[in-house]
Design brief:
The chain is α+β, with helices and mostly antiparallel strands. It has 11 helices and 18 strands. The strands form 4 sheets. The protein has a 5-stranded mixed beta sheet. Helix 1 (about 40-50) packs parallel to helix 3, helix 8 (about 305-355) runs antiparallel to helix 9 and helix 8 runs antiparallel to helix 10. The termini are far apart.
Length: about 475
């Protein structure tokens, strides 16, 4: 079993969770809590030294989940930019919320939440000042522990957020004497409220439920005051020990449902259950996935737009049609060639008979089969080259949807173009038409049609006609 160690840090306690994949099952083999007065270098170093080395035996490094009040989470709506420019956009916002002056002073992780129309995207980000982490990093280095990844506690809790309608979801989890209410959008935290749990809350389901019935309405009022969206579902973490008959009192008038998070990892007998965030992170790491780490350079990947996929599919279909046409034309040409060879053999036999009988031979001239062969050869078209040249003429704003052609019929190209303005879209069509006219083996013109696409701004559907050059 490949062993993975996750250390959950928060002022007041250090939770150590060690587990891995055992066949088809992911399980936790060690789960313990070490007292931690604060997150300073000396206190953390003392807590790390107190961990039994047998617990971390076989691990190559540790993953750190940090619960720090200075950790910032936000969503950024990014205009149509390249990925490097979008990252710079998000980093500038991270500098603003952390109060830092330079990107080198801030640790930032990003993940794509969703795409918006017109090339915009929503990016979720987590940020913290680098100097907050440096003292803790020195404590790990002094204890010969390699840190493989650094994540916020709230970002890990957000992995348990699942929405049936795509709306925001809240995750509530407890750790020691603190509770975290994490408002999530697409498994990315957008707002966090932390509050203390009274002494009677730990291990006392009734006291904890009573305190939550007071804190949750305050939290929803805070969301309204800050103009945040209201969650429809509240997901309770593994450490929120309240009885099932108390769940309706937590739902109140603001929530549609209160559900318990399903932990993806079982725990060995006698071990304390890890928080839902750590359990979700462990499952992802065991599956070869991860969460964007604050120690890595921030990045995310953009999915291919559906319009580009449709254009590529159309080109692929057109290529198949062209290949099939070439196969059909090639088969016809081979039949004509075989027929010509048979006629030539018969002509030589007749010529030999005429010579043997002393009869004059007929004048040599093109036979009907020869004329058929010449006609077939004159009908061969550079289909593959046409596909490549048409593709090269299309720019990023223009997508070819269909291309019809045959040996003698006209070539008809249809597609769609969408620009930042009507003028840009029309210029793109004109530019495409001029480039088609420059293709040497076709004649452009005729059968041209341009129409607007209903309900799509600055979008036109076009139909352009061409014909083959015969000489």
């Amino acid at each position: 079993m490949q062993t993975i160690a996750i250390l959950e840090l928060e002022e007041g306690g250090l939770n150590v969770v060690v587990g891995g994949r055992d066949g088809a099952t992911i399980r936790v083999v060690h789960s313990l809590r070490v007292p931690l007065t604060d997150l300073g270098r000396e206190s953390l170093g003392s807590a790390l030294r107190s961990i039994d080395r047998d617990v971390l035996q076989g691990v190559t490094g540790v993953h750190v989940v940090l619960g720090e009040r200075r950790m910032q989470h936000f969503l950024a709506t990014v205009p149509k930019l390249s990925v490097p420019d979008a990252i710079k956009f998000v980093v500038r916002e991270a500098l603003r919320v952390t109060g830092m002056q330079s990107p080198a002073d801030t640790l930032v992780s990003t993940r794509l939440v969703r795409r918006l129309p017109h090339g915009r995207v929503v990016v979720g980000a987590t940020a913290i000042a680098r100097n907050v982490w440096e003292a803790m990093r020195e404590a790990f280095t002094a204890n010969d522990l390699q840190v493989l990844g650094l994540y916020s506690m709230e970002a890990c809790h957000a992995l348990a957020a699942a929405s049936s309608d795509g709306g925001p979801v809240a995750v509530l989890e407890c750790n020691g004497g603190r509770a975290r209410f994490v408002l999530c959008d697409g498994q990315s935290p957008m707002q966090v409220r932390r509050f203390l749990i009274g002494g009677g809350g730990d291990g006392n389901a009734t006291a904890l439920a009573a305190q939550l019935t007071m804190e949750l309405p305050r939290t929803f009022e805070w969301l309204r005051e800050t103009n945040q969206p209201m969650p429809g579902t509240l997901v309770l973490g593994a450490r929120v020990q309240v009885d099932d008959d108390m769940l309706p009192s937590l739902r109140g008038d603001d929530l549609k449902a209160v559900v318990r998070a399903s932990s993806p990892v079982p725990v060995d007998a006698g071990q304390a259950p890890p928080s839902i965030g750590v359990a979700m992170l462990l499952a992802r790491l065991c599956d070869g996935q991860s969460l964007p780490s604050l120690l890595d350079e921030p990045t995310f990947s953009l999915p291919v737009p559906m319009s580009r996929i449709a254009g590529l599919a159309a080109m692929f279909v057109a290529g198949l049609a062209g290949s099939w046409s070439a196969v059909v034309d090639g088969a016809g040409w081979m039949q004509v060639r075989d027929a010509r060879e048979e006629v030539a053999v018969e002509a030589r036999e007749l010529s030999g008979r005429l010579s043997a009988e002393g009869l004059p031979q007929t004048a040599q001239g093109p036979s009907g089969d020869d004329e058929l062969l010449v006609g077939a050869l004159s009908m061969r078209r550079p289909i593959s080259k046409l596909l490549a040249d048409v593709s090269n003429c299309a720019d990023t704003e223009l997508h070819v949807e269909d291309m019809k052609f045959a040996s003698t019929d006209r070539i008809v190209i249809t597609g769609i173009v969408q620009g930042d303005s009507r003028q840009d879209a029309l210029k793109a069509i004109a530019r495409f038409s001029r480039q088609l006219a420059d293709i040497p083996y076709v004649l452009a013109g005729g059968d041209e049609e341009i129409t607007e696409v209903p309900r799509l701004k600055n979008c036109f559907k076009f139909r352009l006609g061409m014909k083959w050059r015969n000489g």
